[in-house]
Specification:
The chain has 503 residues and is an alpha/beta fold. The strands form five sheets. The chain has a six-stranded antiparallel beta barrel. The chain has a four-stranded parallel β-sheet with strand order 5-4-9-10, sandwiched between helices. A three-stranded parallel β-sheet has the order 1-2-3, sandwiched between helices. Strand 18 and strand 19 form a beta hairpin. Helix 3 packs across helix 4. It starts with a helix and ends with a strand.
C-alpha cells in the first residue's frame, strides 16, 4: 500500500505543480484505505469524488489493479453525478510505464473493459515524473475536459431547442447520393425533430410570380419586378455595387437570371415561413439546375446573417442537394455557436494536411471575412459569376475566400450500420489567393485549412463527401452533445488528440 501511495503521489504532485486542483477519493481515510482495494472503497471513493463535481475522473494505474474495480468506479461516479452532468464521466486513464511493474497492462485491461460497454476514455502512458511530454499529454486532456465542462450549459440549451425543430425537404434525393437521405422516424426518436417535404415546383410556382418576363424566366426580357424584396435585393447588390458581378461566363451573361435566382431565394423564405420550418434542404440538381436556375443564391443567403437586400436576418441552416444529415449537422453547429451561420461544403481535396472545402457555389458571405467583421463589408466583396458548364439552366454562383488565421470546426453527423455517429475536428484557415479558384472550379468558393491529423487519417475518418463548418472550436461542446444524445463520436482536438466513443 505504501508503494502504491508513493506512486500516486508522483502523479498528484506533478499535476499540482502545474496548477491543477487534484481531489483524491481516499483523502482523509486511514492509510490502508486511501487506495481503493475493495468494492466498498471503490464505491465510497467514487461517490466522494462525484460530490466534488470535478471536470475529469482520473484513474491512476501505477501497478496492476483490477479492471472491474476501475469500471465500477466510473459507473458509480457517473451515476452519482447530479444535474446536467448526471451519467457523463470524462475519464482519463494514466498508466505508469516501466518494465518492472504492469501499470500499462492494467490500463489496457481497464480500457478493454470500458470499450465492451462503450464507456469512453483517454489513455496516457509513460513516466510523468521523468518525461515532460507525458505530463503535457495529460494536461492537454484535462484542458479539453475543462472546456467540455464549461460547454455543458450551452449544450443543454441547444438540446432543449432542438426538440421540436422542423426540417423541410424541398425535393428528394439529389445525384443518387445515399448519404443525403435520413430516416425521419429515427430523427424523431433520437433528436426530437419533425419533418415535412414539398416538391421543388413549389419554389418555381412562387418565384415566377415575383417577376414579370416576356418569355422564359431568367432568359427573356425582364418586364417588371412584382415583389419589392426582389427589387430591393437586385438594387442593393447590383445597382448600388454591394456585390462584384462578372458577366463574362456563359451561365451568367447578364443580370436577368440573377433576378430569377433572387426570386427563388424569397420563394424559399416564404415556403419556410408558411410551413413553420426551422431548417431545410433544397435538392437543386438536376431539375432546378437543369430547367430553371441553380439555387446557390437561395442556399447561400438562407445560411447567411444578412439578406441580399442588406438587412440583418437570422441564419437558417440549409443544405445543398437536400443532404439531410448535413443540414442537421449545420443546425447543431448553429445552436452551439450562439446562433451564427454554419456552412455546407464539399470535402474537395486534402494535401499535406491542407483541406480544401470547395462546393458548388453557395458558401454564406459571412465566411468571406472574419467573424467579427461587418456583414455589409462581406457582401461588398462577395463575387457573382457564371456557374460551371454542367448546370444547363445556368445562374450565378456565390464566390469568395475565407481568410486565413481563423479557427473553424468541421463536422458531420452520419450513420454507420444504421447507427448515428459524429466526426469533427478544429482546423486553422490559410489565406487563399484569388488564383486558387483556377485549381479547383473557377466559379466556386474556397476554404483552405490546416488539419490536426494527416491526410490518410482524415480521409479514412470522413464518412462522405459533405461537411458542415462553423467559426470557432466547438469540439468540446460536440463531445458533450454526442454523450447526451448517446451516439458514437470520433473527435480530434487542435493537437490531434482523439476522443472516441463507439456507436
Amino acid at each position: 500500500q505504501a508503494a502504491l501511495l508513493a506512486g500516486e503521489a508522483l502523479l498528484v504532485e506533478a499535476l499540482r505543480r502545474q496548477g491543477v486542483e487534484v481531489i483524491r477519493g481516499g483523502e482523509g481515510l486511514p492509510e490502508e484505505d486511501q487506495i481503493a482495494w475493495n468494492t466498498g472503497l471503490v464505491r465510497l471513493q467514487a461517490r466522494r469524488l462525484a460530490e466534488a463535481r470535478p471536470d475529469a475522473f482520473l484513474i491512476n494505474h501505477g501497478d496492476w489493479s483490477w479492471p472491474y474495480d476501475a469500471r465500477d468506479a466510473v459507473q458509480v461516479f457517473a451515476h452519482a453525478l447530479q444535474g446536467q452532468d448526471h451519467g457523463i464521466a470524462r475519464v482519463l486513464i494514466y498508466c505508469h510505464k516501466e518494465p518492472e511493474v504492469p501499470g500499462l497492462v492494467a490500463g489496457m485491461a481497464s480500457g478493454g473493459a470500458f470499450r465492451r460497454i462503450a464507456l469512453p476514455y483517454r489513455l496516457v502512458f509513460g513516466r510523468v515524473d521523468r518525461d515532460p511530454e507525458v505530463l503535457e499529454r495529460i494536461l492537454d486532456t484535462l484542458r479539453f475536459y475543462r472546456r467540455r465542462a464549461e460547454a455543458v450549459p450551452g449544450v443543454m440549451e441547444a438540446l432543449d431547442r432542438m426538440t421540436g425543430l422542423k426540417y423541410l425537404a424541398l425535393g428528394g434525393m439529389s445525384l443518387k447520393m445515399c448519404t443525403g437521405t435520413a430516416d425521419v422516424d429515427q430523427w424523431a426518436k433520437r433528436f426530437g425533430i419533425t419533418y415535412d417535404a414539398l416538391d421543388q415546383s413549389e419554389l418555381t410556382r412562387r418565384a415566377v410570380e415575383m417577376v414579370e418576363w416576356s418569355g422564359k424566366p431568367g432568359k427573356s426580357d425582364l418586364l417588371s419586378i412584382r415583389d419589392p424584396r426582389v427589387a430591393a435585393a437586385l438594387r442593393h447588390l447590383h445597382d448600388e455595387g454591394h456585390g462584384r458581378f462578372d458577366f463574362s461566363r456563359d451561365k451568367l451573361p447578364d443580370v436577368r437570371i440573377f433576378a430569377h435566382q433572387l426570386a427563388f431565394y424569397y420563394a424559399a423564405v416564404d415556403v419556410m415561413r408558411m410551413y413553420d420550418a426551422d431548417f431545410l434542404g433544397i435538392k437543386c440538381q438536376d431539375e432546378l439546375s437543369g430547367l430553371e436556375c441553380t439555387q446557390c443564391i437561395a442556399t447561400a443567403f438562407l445560411n447567411n446573417d444578412m439578406g441580399p437586400e442588406g438587412l440583418a436576418k437570422k441564419p437558417v441552416p440549409v443544405s445543398c442537394e437536400n443532404d439531410m444529415d448535413s443540414s442537421l449537422t449545420q443546425m447543431v453547429l448553429h445552436l452551439l455557436n450562439g446562433g451564427k451561420p454554419a456552412g455546407f461544403g464539399d470535402f474537395r481535396d486534402i494535401e499535406d494536411r491542407v483541406l480544401a472545402i470547395v462546393n458548388c457555389g453557395q458558401h454564406p458571405p459571412y465566411f468571406f471575412g472574419p467573424p467579427e467583421e461587418d456583414g455589409e463589408t462581406k457582401l461588398d466583396r462577395t463575387e457573382y459569376l457564371g456557374q460551371e458548364v454542367w448546370y444547363h439552366a445556368g445562374g450565378s454562383s456565390v464566390r469568395g475566400r475565407t481568410p486565413g488565421g481563423q479557427v473553424m470546426t468541421v463536422a458531420r453527423l452520419y450513420r454507420e450500420n444504421l447507427r448515428y455517429a459524429l466526426v469533427a475536428m478544429p482546423v486553422e484557415t490559410l489565406e487563399p489567393s484569388p488564383e486558387i479558384h483556377e485549381r479547383y472550379s473557377v466559379s466556386w468558393p474556397v476554404i483552405l485549412a490546416k488539419t490536426p491529423i494527416d491526410d490518410e487519417r482524415v480521409i479514412d475518418l470522413w464518412p462522405c463527401n459533405h461537411l458542415g463548418f462553423s467559426y470557432g472550436d466547438l469540439t468540446p461542446a460536440l463531445v458533450e452533445m454526442a454523450e447526451r444524445l448517446d451516439i458514437g463520436y470520433t473527435i480530434y482536438d487542435r493537437k490531434g488528440n482523439v476522443y472516441r466513443k463507439e456507436s
